[in-house]
């Protein structure tokens, strides 16, 4: 085992000593939210800052299309061309008015899905990925669980009413967070207008205006808003997912079952979040936070493998503590994980981050063995062979002694 000694640890946590908010009292969570269920989340950390009925099941309506779009982006190709079948043209509700036989790209359909909320676009994309809406629903449920949405079930790609189609505010915040981490998705839902060129079946250009009024409407426009999706059916009422960024803080709001005030609720929650919390980095990917000395005395830096941030309470910033745990490994190469950085917030475990070695360390004895072609992959074979040779030699010596003893007896 290599003895590893920490020479220095320099975490970039100076911000904890310089928060200018210590004397300002934290504002209470708004009590005028009209949505039956909601979640306000810090998108970078996934921490829920405020919520109501976060685990209650609701019908999501067209915010379903957030998950649909994410799956299509991950599994499809934006440049692929799709010939519209008859089935998408039968969908009710919000529509792109796709025509059977019309040829459009996956990218065009995605903009039609997320800006215009086309139910026909949802069906066309589902058939493109999985062959049918039913098979695509299986993909939706699988991907939802991967994102942490364990109390949801999806039966179709568009969100039209179905008793077996439901989610929770918490679940859908996790789905939307995962979608917003995708640059292509983020670009689409942050677009105010988009034009689909004419086709022989539809000779007029389709001008799509984003249904998300936090982006496209002067009346409801919110500074920093950058996504994501509206929803409505008579049974689900209004549903909405919105995102906004100010400084380094990225917030996400999910509203469920709202009669008419989803934009007002979302803006109120954004204001509360930005006023009371500020996201700051604890670790930064690629940065050196310390070093260790191995037996050969070479300095080997510890490199952070990922960004980590936390939404600190401006009125009373949480305290961060860290501890480095070294892995019990005898040798390593540059880029190998050699330690874990355990991060705690106010004494409670928060995240564990891999630390990678900047240089290799191979003991001299191992280098000598490798020089003669002895590596980890054949050391065991060589050791076993050596054991057999030793055993064979012992048997020969034993047999010689037995023969000598016999000869002595019969002399």
From TrEMBL:
One GO term (biological process) = proteolysis
The record's annotation in Gene3D superfamilies points to:
D-Ala-D-Ala carboxypeptidase, C-terminal domain, DD-peptidase/beta-lactamase superfamily
Which residues bind substrate per the record?
229
Q: What keywords are annotated for this sequence in UniProt?
A: Carboxypeptidase, Cell shape, Cell wall biogenesis/degradation, Hydrolase, Membrane, Peptidoglycan synthesis, Protease, Signal, Transmembrane, Transmembrane helix
Quote the InterPro entries the UniProt record gives: Beta-lactam/transpept-like, Peptidase_S11, Peptidase_S11_C, Peptidase_S11_C_sf, Peptidase_S11_N
Q: Which GO terms describe its molecular function?
A: serine-type D-Ala-D-Ala carboxypeptidase activity
Q: Into which EC class is this enzyme placed?
A: hydrolase
Pathway(s): Cell wall biogenesis; peptidoglycan biosynthesis
**Positions of the Peptidase S11 D-Ala-D-Ala carboxypeptidase A C-terminal domain:** 277-363
Q: State the name under which the record lists this protein.
A: serine-type D-Ala-D-Ala carboxypeptidase
What organism does the record attribute this protein to?
Clostridium cylindrosporum DSM 605
Organism classification, top ranks?
Bacteria, Bacillati, Bacillota, Clostridia, Eubacteriales
């Amino acid at each position: 085992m290599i003895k590893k000694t920490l020479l220095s640890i320099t975490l970039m946590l100076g911000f904890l000593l310089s928060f200018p908010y210590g004397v300002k009292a934290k504002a209470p969570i708004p009590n005028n939210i009209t949505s039956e269920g909601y979640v306000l989340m810090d998108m970078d950390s996934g921490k829920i800052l405020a919520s109501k009925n976060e685990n209650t099941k609701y019908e999501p309506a067209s915010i379903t299309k957030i998950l649909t779009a994410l799956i299509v982006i991950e599994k499809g190709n934006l440049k692929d061309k799709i010939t519209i079948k008859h089935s998408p043209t039968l969908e009710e509700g919000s529509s792109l008015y796709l025509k059977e036989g019309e040829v459009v790209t996956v990218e065009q359909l995605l903009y039609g899905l997320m800006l215009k909320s086309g139910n026909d676009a949802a069906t066309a994309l589902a058939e493109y990925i999985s062959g049918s809406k039913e098979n695509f629903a299986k993909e939706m449920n699988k991907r939802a669980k991967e994102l942490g949405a364990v109390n949801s079930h999806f039966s179709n790609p568009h969100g039209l009413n179905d008793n077996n189609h439901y989610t929770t505010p918490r679940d859908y915040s996790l789905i939307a967070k995962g979608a917003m981490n995708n640059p292509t998705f983020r670009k689409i839902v942050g677009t105010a207008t988009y034009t689909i060129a004419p086709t022989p079946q539809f000779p007029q250009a389709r001008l799509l205006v984003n249904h998300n009024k936090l982006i496209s409407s002067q009346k409801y426009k919110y500074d920093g808003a950058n996504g994501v999706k509206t929803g409505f059916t008579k049974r689900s009422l209004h549903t909405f997912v919105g995102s906004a960024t100010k400084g380094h803080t990225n917030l996400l709001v999910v509203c469920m079952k709202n009669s008419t005030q989803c934009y007002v609720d979302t803006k109120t929650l954004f204001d509360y979040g930005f006023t009371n919390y500020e996201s700051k980095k604890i670790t930064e990917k690629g940065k050196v936070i310390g070093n260790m000395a191995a037996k050969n005395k070479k300095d080997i830096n510890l490199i952070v493998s990922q960004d980590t941030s936390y939404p600190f309470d401006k009125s009373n910033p949480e305290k961060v503590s860290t501890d480095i745990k070294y892995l019990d490994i005898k040798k390593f190469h540059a880029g190998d994980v050699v330690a874990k950085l355990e991060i705690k917030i106010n004494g409670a475990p928060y995240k564990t981050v891999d630390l990678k070695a900047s240089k290799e360390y191979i003991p001299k004895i191992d280098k000598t063995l490798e020089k003669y072609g002895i590596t980890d992959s054949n050391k065991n074979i060589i050791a076993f062979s050596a054991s057999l040779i030793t055993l064979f030699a012992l048997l020969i010596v034993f047999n010689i002694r037995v023969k000598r003893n016999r000869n002595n007896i019969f002399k």
